[in-house]
Write a structure and sequence with these properties.
The structure is a homodimer. In chain A, about 45% of the residues lie in helices and about 15% in strands. Chain A contains 17 helices and 16 strands. Strand 1 of chain A pairs parallel with strand 10 of chain B.
Chain lengths: ~475, ~475
């Protein structure tokens, strides 16, 4: 008989709703042969989104050393032989631009994909990330604080970067991390696991999830009353689960709040390409020359790349704080964190490199790259709008914020007495097959009910499901 | 001014020698233009080992959907056109067997590399791992306990699996983990980070690093004296840093010890293919029908694959214990651990699949696959033997154990008065450019001195360095 053993209570207490009871029930229904419509997770390629051609050509060529010469030979054969050219379509030829791009990567990366890299990731990739950040934020040699490649860590998705930082900042339950409610459960789960205290702040839903000093000050005062030392504030922009793009004014409120209270900012900016026309400003730009400690995260999983499975991303650090009572610097400790897992996976590193160094306008493959990108973003936005319009036909359903990320987080103002969003989402699943995650999984203002829906399934599927949902809803809430 | 902040003392106290001061000094010398010979880390492809052709062809084809049809077309062109066949060499054609192998993977994996997978990894890969374990251990339907795909987790290298388990088993400093001294610093670092207590046991170096009950009982008694509850015993087989292959008798001693004391076994078996003819037996086989909790780890980083950078591997669990005072099962908590990081990277998953499902004897690509494998393993062994022979020419250097893994861990019996292995390794680096890691980085019996050398650099490089080392040594120790 195996004995029963104690398990770390922090690990035991972690919750992770995105893979929780509703998706689990959906999996059971699927096995029983029911058709379900998975709107519960931001996993684009699981729902038919195709990977970008350029991205994967580069990755595949990096994985197969020696293929560069072979592909050049095939290109020459196509050019010289009528017979070959007749058989091979244009998309069967790897463009010379791609071969050169990869040849350049091999130059910069002689040990290749199979060797451990520096714990931070290869320097040339970190340099490319720094250039990407500066270009994005309009930093020039004349103005602004440029990104430093030595302060950039390649990570396995954004989750790993969050873990590194929280593991360092939290020493015990007297350390608090401020997180927006609703939030992505990675934060609550990691705080619980590290033994810290989650301090909630409540963006103003009715004002498009905006932020102001009063709500931040209020949360901090609450924490102080409980003798909790707040160490950092997490901002997710565009939001998850809200999908809302934060306005610059809200961002500036966070910066002044962090400055005055000596807090670090953890800026989860993984949806920075999912803007659909809304203007967005990074926290690196917002803090400018301020010396606030900033940890910002980006990922290949979202945007129009949608390379979730590959687990790639980066963590950029600005103004790392000094470490109390220690001779080691903050960045040295962070490097030790990264060293224990040796390096982030090299395939994720390659995809991160392409993300920050895409083919420029005017390059021969740009037209195809841009067309693929636009097709993905345009369709996402169309689906987002369709779903929002459907909410208008559902009694008591309201959705706020400028559309961003991959999600809506509508508020359910009318529900049958004694029931909450969990019952609603479960009934929605049973009746229509639509898989969502209920608001409680992300946290919400007490007394409110929500759900998160990812607008990722194919358009036809969404078109077909919306009338069913509207009908279900209007019956359910009055039933 | 950034304020100074407290950092989690466990994270601050972690040490990770493999990327510590000696390799860091080597990096400085390299930047100054010195040639160094990196024997400090088991990173084969950084030292010229080529990735296996089959492995990378499969991975590249998986990364580039649509290339299957294109490659078939190219094969047909080669077969039908004299002109094409003349230009394309045999290695330019992807064998039909590889295309079929990949087509089969696509069938099993319709969402592909870019989508999140199940947190444990795709089921068909876990099934293949289970078959691999059963075949390796001679488990049939008639005898033995077969591996269960549901108890297998794909991980980002073995390190991640170790982290999951230690984070669960360690609740505070009263929880101890027994680790062999010397050990791989992943264990000491992770135990420190989790706030647990490291309990050392000392394999018998002079008896080829063998284990017996008395040394294990002694370590446990020491722990009990300190009021430490030992939760698990770590065994690394073949050893790192010792390189020694454990004999079955030693393994059985561990099993009886774990059984009688209700301990889990954490079996780090990542070097299970680096045996060079020595017989080896897995802990899954050793425990047999016993109900001891077993966590065993394997990786794509070692063996003859050497795919360190890709971060792939798996954790297999047997006889998970019940969780004290909780309704959740141990496996559910482990699944939650895996869920928070969503999934291990898909490229590492593909390489793990190929590792456990290589082309079988008789398949058309087997000859090439086997030849590449043998070339790597044969050369590794030759280099290992060359280095051992050199030790015989160095005063007071002794090395024990049946050769396995990628390392020797010789004992330095004679050193200048008042100096230890750190000074020795630093002097060796400065004088000869040879980069090693000193014994203290792994832990060693008090009063002894060692170093770890990875026998990975190219043969010519080792041949050239050994006389220098012998000369350095014999001058240094008498000097």
């Amino acid at each position: 008989m195996p004995v029963s053993v104690p398990v770390n209570p922090y690990v035991l207490d972690m919750e992770y709703a995105v893979r929780g009871p509703i998706p689990q029930r959906a999996a059971v229904l699927q096995r029983e042969g029911r058709t379900t419509i998975p709107c519960n997770i931001g996993n684009p390629q699981a729902l038919g989104q195709k990977p970008l051609t350029f991205l994967r050509q580069v990755l595949a060529l990096m994985e197969e050393p020696g293929r560069l010469d072979r592909e050049k030979k095939i290109s020459r054969l196509c050019a010289s032989s009528h017979e070959v050219a007749e058989q091979m379509r244009e998309e069967d030829i790897i463009p010379e631009y791609v071969l050169d791009y990869v040849a350049d990567m091999y130059e910069n990366w002689p040990t290749g994909m199979g060797a451990y890299t520096e714990s931070k990731g290869p320097l040339f990739i970190r340099e490319a990330i720094a250039r990407f950040i500066d270009a994005r934020d309009g930093i020039s040699t004349a103005s602004g604080v440029p990104a430093d490649p030595e302060s950039i860590f390649l990570t396995s998705g954004a989750s790993e970067g969050v873990r590194f930082i929280l593991e360092m900042l939290i020493t015990d339950s007297s350390d608090g991390i401020m997180i927006p409610i609703p939030q992505y459960p990675l934060y609550s789960a990691t705080i619980v696991k590290c033994g810290g205290t989650q301090i909630n702040y409540y963006p103003d839903e009715d004002d498009d999830w905006s932020l102001d000093r009063s709500m931040l000050d209020e949360a901090l005062a609450e924490a102080k009353k409980k003798k909790v030392n707040v160490r950092a504030i997490v901002v997710i922009n565009p939001g998850n689960p809200t999908g809302a793009v934060l306005d610059a004014k809200s961002g500036r409120e966070v910066v002044s709040f962090a400055r005055e209270n000596g807090l670090a900012i953890i800026a989860d900016e993984v949806y920075q390409e999912n803007l659909y026309g809304a203007d967005w400003v990074s926290f690196a730009k917002l803090i400018g020359e301020d010396d606030i400690a900033l940890f910002s995260l980006h990922s290949i999983s979202k945007g129009f790349y949608g390379e979730c499975g590959h687990r790639g991303g980066y963590l950029e650090v600005r103004n790392p704080p000094a470490v109390e009572n220690a001779e080691t610097g903050f960045m040295d400790v962070l490097l030790k964190q990264a060293s224990v897992r040796l390096n982030s996976n090299t395939a994720g590193q390659v995809l991160t490199y392409v993300m920050v160094n895409p083919p420029p306008e005017g390059s021969p493959v740009y037209a195809q790259f841009a067309a693929e990108r636009e097709a993905i973003l345009t369709e996402l936005y169309e689906k987002a709008v369709m779903i929002r319009e459907a909410f208008d036909k559902m009694e008591g359903v309201e959705s706020f914020g400028r559309i961003g990320a991959l999600y809506h987080f509508p508020r359910l103002n009318v529900l049958p007495k004694g029931t909450g969003d969990y019952e609603y989402c479960m009934a929605l699943l049973e009746e229509t097959g639509i898989v969502t995650v209920n608001g409680a999984g992300f946290g919400q203002k007490p007394g409110t009910n929500h759900l998160r829906i990812a607008f990722l399934p194919p358009k036809e599927m969404i078109e077909a499901m919306l009338p069913d949902w509207i009908a279900f809803h209007n019956t359910y809430v009055t039933g």
